[in-house]
Amino acid sequence: MSERKVGSVTYQEVGEEYFKQRGLRRHAGMWSLWALGVGAVKSRRMNVRGLDLRMVAAFALFFAFGILWSIVLGHFTPRQLGVFWPTYFMMIYTIVGLWVGPAFVAIGLGITALTLIGYFFVGAWFDLWMAVFNGGGLILGGLWMRRS
Predict the structure, then answer these.
(1) Which of 36, 51, 80, 145 has the smallest number of Cβ neighbours within 10 A?
(2) Cβ burial 17-31 (10 Å sphere, 16+ → b, else e)
(3) Interval 79-99 mean pLDDT
(4) Are residues 45 and 55 in the same domain?
């Protein structure tokens, strides 16, 4: 097994014995792809409505969030936890905004961007940054939605 270190995360490349020991396969296989194709054709014939674009966007946001936190940032320190929870709730704001309205999307993405700017660039003033820009962002967002 070879190891590769990226930041604070260590990746191990495993061989075929790892998959055999756990009863796993590396690929979906032809039967799985065939079943997906048959399901797609069958749903078209039965006039089943396809996925809504908002649903696709919700899944994309969900997986992008998981990839960001599991690959980019790795193990959580207290400071990373201070970023995790606000960005997690702002992801929910953004997803809800896909159904409710653009104000939630703007608030979610804006506060997430400000949180990440604070995490990467503010340094020792991070707690104050989070109080001002997260709390202030939610208050301003609420006032913005109230006027609508």
Answers:
(1) 51
(2) eeeeeeeeeeeeeee
(3) 86
(4) no
